[in-house]
Amino acid sequence: MISKNVRVRFAPSPTGFLHIGGLRTSLYNYLFARHHGGTFVLRIEDTDQSRYVEGAEADIIRSLEWCGMTVDEGPGAHAEKPGAHHDGPGAHHDGPGAHHDGPFGPYRQSERKAIYAEYTQKLIDNGSAYYAFDTADEVEEMRERLIKSGNPSPKYDYITRQSMKNSLTLPEDEVKRRLEAGDPYVIRLNVPRNKTVKFEDEIRGVVSFETKGLDDQVLIKSDGMPTYHLANVVDDHLMQISHVIRGEEWLSSTPKHILLYEAFGWEPPVMAHLPLIMSPSGGKLSKRKAESEGIPVNTKDYISGHYEPEALVNFLAYLGWSPGDDSEIHSLEELCELFTLDRVSKGGAVFNHKKLLWYNEQYLRQQSDETIAARLRAMDGDLVDAMPKQNLVTAVGLLKERVSKIDELLEMGRFFFEDPQEVDPAAMKKWKEDSAELVGEYRKRVDAMPSSAFDATSLKSTLEEIVNERGIGFGKLMMPLRIAVTGQGFGPDLFESMALIGREAVLRRLASAVERLG
Ligand code: GLU
Fold first, then answer.
1. Got the DSSP string for 81-124?
2. Are 346 and 399 part of one and the same domain?
3. Residue ranges around ligand 1 (CB below 6 Å)
4. CA of 43 to the centre of ligand 1 (A)
5. Is 20 helix (H, G, I), strand (E, B) or coil?
6. Atom of ligand 1 nearest to the CA of 45
7. Model-level pTM?
8. Would you please indicate which residues are annotated as catalytic (active-site) residues?
9. Which of 377, 392, 449, 479 is the most buried (most CB within 10 A)?
10. pLDDT by residue (tens digit) across 259-317?
């Protein structure tokens, strides 16, 4: 039973194109928000300027839109929800124009620097954080020294901080002097020694960590920018996030976040860490692995690859979750109804590309031939325009069941629009010595046929006539005929296809094949 007002966020870092794992995280957040009548926030975590990629934010927004996920607050939010006002907590911090994305803006962390400074000060004041003046070299020296003395993973922690230059070890007046002189510093979290941090994850159950293994996490870097940990916690609190739903790779950061919530005296949101997405060959589906297995990694590749967005959404929803029955096809709306966190699996979810293509087929076939024809026209006007509208619709009907994606219709159905330029080499193997003669005979009979009789039925009976007269198998003529007309060894019903291509073009193609292929 979820009693809180549900507010969730998708919080990507704009460090590149939105990858498929990120898209699944956003989808689960979206489904959860809609299921509970809550709010879906988009927050751009762009504090790491060195990894910022121009255009990444636009790519994220476009990807969510393409999938049909509407953002309620944040960059790209379309409309304000009824009853949303411009005066939420944190509003007094905002710069001019920052409000239009929602009541808790700005939603880009780079625009919230003043907020992080204010909240870090609270931690300094209550002793939960401290200034550290050590240079990067000094920290490095400390680590090397400890490695040499047998500590394999030295940290800046409760023990080692004692010999470093920070506001816990330096006299108060020196700290003051350094700050006033503008000496560079970072601000670190004062991680308590030997404490067990426990929290209940909605998916993984009780998780506990020992602080012994934790660094005194840097909260504010020397350039004044917050680290992910600080900004994430401050924003989740100020934006009144009720549930943090994110990838398993963030699980190990959560104890630091819990310590931060404790340091601020805030109640942490409910945590839910989603299972990893695995490669079919085992292990985490990394970019490199995906590429080597022919799996597109970025959402934009699915857009440009002509996948159906509904198929990708349906597939991703099932990548780590299932409704608990054997149903498979669900629209985004139905998924919103069905989605609950207790049905998210703990174990890794294998990315099965074939299954995605299966989903794609289902969603493509659901569309009327007219709709698909209109889409094809938009995709490749020049090619498709050569064909009368009704013929195109009929051609779609002939091809639709044979492809997984709409672009394959153009490939497979190219022969409907233009004479085949060459024959597929695999098909060519089926062009035999007697093929030219048989095709020539067929052509002669079709040529003699009155135009009004040129239809699928008589085209088929003409073929039957010849094979019966000669006492040969159907395929003996059928295959070379298909090769001559389409350039391929397989495809939709050949007689229907020829009827659609038209008498003149069929006669021309048959003559040309006899001549070219001999
Ligand atoms: N900015 C982090 C990311 O890129 C967000 C992780 C989280 O949701 O807390 O995924």
1. PTT--S--TTGGG--TTGGGG-TT---BGGG-HHHHHHHHHHHH
2. no
3. 11-13, 45, 228, 232, 246, 250
4. 9
5. helix
6. 1
7. 0.90
8. 287
9. 392
10. 999 999 999 999 999 999 999 988 999 888 898 899 999 999 999 999 999 999 999 99
